């Protein structure tokens, strides 16, 4: 029980905690005791320090009752004293009222102390403070505001006043610490000089922070403005492009109507001609049938005179000179104009097919495989982003910024067909993006299995380093001439033709093409490169569109 009691005692008043509070350094004190030490009534005024470890605490520190520690104190008080102690011992008493520092020189009737002499280690009431100041032998003593723990204002090693401040270790020290102690040969200043120095530094820092805050606020306003502008631009372009497509549809619909009208007119013309020809043939048949009927009637007449008179009247004495029946020329119905219409539509289709399907029609957004990522890389849960880990790393960065060992592969590989994907790089100063046949796993007699990726003859990449673009393949590099900084990099593979092309995905301008003669599966590869001093921490992000047109 004694050990538990010691752990529940306040270091200032040496009594069981009353309203215990815990400082950030981990030490516990009574609320009134720590307020007395800090000479404050609970307001957020500094400077604050821990009487136990002497470290300075935040100026705007708010102390709160440690309810767990307070419950332990109440439990000890209600459990009763141990057998060796009489009833009514210290642990069974009620919690003490807030402590007040009393004058050490008032014997019969102690008065409330108003000052503390650090030289005498004595607390003084108003009367004894006046006597203390009047004695010439005591005028050199250091008298401060009253405190219940004068030792907190003294050096724990030499018990001397803390009159200096070590500028190297940033702690208050006494004169002996600087002369013969652990702070010997350290640069030390008077407390008021150190306060003036650090106050000036804090003011400068505050002004700098205020300026930075103002800059950040302006940056946020700019970002909000750009966000609004982007939304407006997107809506405007969406409307304009929709209007352009509407006009294209109008043109196509008009051309379609024209071609259909040509076909209808051709059909009408041909059918009308055929109907006319049929009418002529039917008239000839009718005339022939009439002549046959007349001839048949004459042949049946037995009166010779009447027969001759009838045949003479009908001009049938001479053989009939009938126009021959013309054979129908099927070539006259050859749909040549219809073929011309079809050819014109085919020409239009060929002209459009030069621009369709768009490259974006083949777009995909392969997810990144965290199992292939270098340990210093971090992959987002959706597998769409990769960036250099934000935690500090113990190893020194590689001297070669585009060392492809700091890479991650996509889960999906390509062996045939056409594929296209885009990676957002924005203002990222360093990155390496391309395709590879995958990690090279091999063992030799001196090393373990290695899966580090390398820029070699089975990888094709584009590297960007602070405005410079390089095409990398087979341990060789070629500098590229790029007019405008690339914000999105597009990659297209046509494995049937053995082509691998890199584009500025915003302008759809070709940056570089590789001839790829490879039968192995190709994996998209991303390398965010090393982050130095937080300048290259931006991620590489897979760009994604919903349901590409097929």
Write down the CATH topology of the domain at 360-392 and 399-439 and 453-542.
Jelly Rolls
Percent in strands: 15-25%
Secondary structure tally: strands: 23
CATH architecture title of the domain at 360-392 and 399-439 and 453-542 = Sandwich
- Note the overall shape: rod-shaped
Biggest sheet architecture: 7 strands, antiparallel
Poorly predicted sequence stretches spanning 5 or more consecutive residues: 81-98, 392-401, 440-452
Mean pLDDT: 82
Radius of gyration: 51 Å
Sheet with most strands: strand arrangement: 11-12-23-14-19-20-21
CATH homologous superfamily of the domain at 360-392 and 399-439 and 453-542 - what is it?
SPRY domain
Classified by CATH, the class of the domain at 360-392 and 399-439 and 453-542 is: Mainly Beta
Number of helices: 8
First and last CA, distance: 81 Å
Give me a quick take on this structure.
Keywords: Immunity, Innate immunity, Metal-binding, Zinc, Zinc-finger. This protein is of the alpha+beta class and 550 residues long.
Please explain how this structure is put together.
By secondary structure, the protein is α+β, with helices and mostly antiparallel strands. Among the domains are: 2-92, Herpes Virus-1 (2-Layer Sandwich), CATH 3.30.40; 229-356; 360-392 and 399-439 and 453-542, SPRY domain (Jelly Rolls). It contains eight helices and 23 strands. It has helices at residues 2-7, 31-38, 67-79, 126-134, 175-179, 191-299, 304-313, 336-353, and strands spanning 20-22, 28-30, 48-49, 56-57, 115-117, 122-124, 143-145, 164-166, 171-173, 188-190, 377-379, 385-388, 408-409, 418-424, 430-436, 459-465, 468-473, 476-480, 488-494, 499-504, 509-515, 523-527, 540-542. Strands 11-12-23-14-19-20-21 form a seven-stranded antiparallel β-sheet, with no helix packed on it. Strands 13-22-15-16-17-18 form a six-stranded antiparallel β-sheet, with no helix packed on it. A three-stranded antiparallel β-sheet has the order 6-5-7. Helix 6 runs antiparallel to helix 8 (336-353). Residues 155-191 form the B box-type domain. Residues 10-54 form the RING-type domain.
């Amino acid at each position: 029980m004694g050990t538990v009691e010691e752990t529940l005692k306040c270091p200032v008043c040496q009594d069981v905690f009353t309203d215990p509070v815990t400082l950030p350094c981990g030490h516990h004190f009574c609320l009134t005791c720590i307020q007395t030490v800090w000479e404050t009534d609970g307001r957020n005024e500094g400077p604050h320090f821990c009487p136990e470890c002497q470290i300075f605490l935040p100026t705007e520190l708010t102390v709160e009752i440690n309810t767990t520690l307070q419950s332990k104190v109440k439990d000890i008080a209600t459990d009763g004293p141990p057998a060796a102690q009489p009833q009514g011992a210290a642990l069974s008493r009620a919690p003490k009222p807030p402590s007040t520092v009393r004058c050490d020189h008032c014997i019969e009737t102690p008065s409330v102390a108003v000052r503390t002499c650090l030289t005498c280690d004595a607390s003084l009431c108003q009367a004894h403070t006046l006597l203390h100041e009047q004695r010439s032998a005591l005028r050199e003593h250091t008298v401060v505001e009253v405190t219940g723990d004068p030792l907190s204002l003294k050096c724990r090693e030499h018990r001397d006043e803390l009159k200096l401040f070590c500028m190297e270790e940033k702690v208050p020290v006494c004169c002996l610490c600087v002369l013969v102690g652990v702070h010997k040969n350290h640069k030390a200043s008077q407390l008021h000089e150190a306060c003036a120095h650090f106050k000036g530094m804090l003011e400068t820092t505050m002004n700098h922070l205020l300026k930075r805050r103002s800059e950040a606020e302006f940056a946020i306003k700019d970002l909000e403005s750009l966000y609004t502008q982007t939304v407006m631009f997107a809506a405007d372009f969406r409307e304009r492009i929709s209007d352009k497509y509407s006009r294209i549809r109008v043109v196509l619909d008009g051309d379609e109507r024209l071609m259909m009208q040509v076909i209808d007119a051709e059909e009408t013309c041909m059918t009308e001609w055929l109907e006319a020809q049929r009418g002529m043939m039917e008239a000839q048949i009718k005339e022939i049938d009439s002549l046959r009927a007349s001839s048949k009637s004459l042949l049946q007449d037995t009166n010779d005179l009447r027969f001759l008179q009838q045949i003479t009247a009908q001009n049938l004495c001479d053989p009939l000179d009938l126009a021959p029946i013309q054979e129908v020329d099927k070539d006259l119905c050859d749909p040549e104009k219809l073929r011309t219409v079809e050819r014109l539509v085919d020409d239009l289709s060929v002209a459009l097919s030069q621009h369709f399907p768009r490259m974006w029609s083949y777009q995909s957004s392969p997810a990144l495989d965290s199992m292939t990522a270098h340990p210093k890389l971090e992959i987002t849960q959706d597998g769409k982003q990769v960036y250099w880990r934000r935690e500090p790393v113990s190893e020194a960065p590689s001297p070669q910024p585009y060392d492809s060992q700091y890479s991650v592969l996509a889960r999906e590989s390509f062996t045939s067909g056409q594929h296209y994907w885009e990676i957002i790089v924005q203002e990222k100063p360093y990155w390496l993006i391309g395709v590879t046949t995958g990690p090279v796993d091999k063992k030799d007699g001196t090393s373990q299995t290695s899966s580090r990726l390398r820029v070699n003859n089975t990888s094709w990449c584009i590297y960007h380093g602070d405005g410079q673009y390089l095409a990398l393949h087979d341990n060789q590099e070629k500098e590229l001439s790029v007019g405008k900084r690339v914000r999105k990099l597009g990659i297209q593979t046509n494995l049937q033709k053995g082509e691998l092309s890199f584009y500025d995905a915003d302008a759809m301008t070709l940056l570089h093409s590789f001839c790829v003669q490879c039968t192995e599966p190709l994996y998209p590869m991303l390398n965010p490169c090393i982050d130095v001093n937080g300048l290259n921490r931006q991620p590489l992000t897979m760009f994604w569109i919903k349901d590409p047109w097929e």
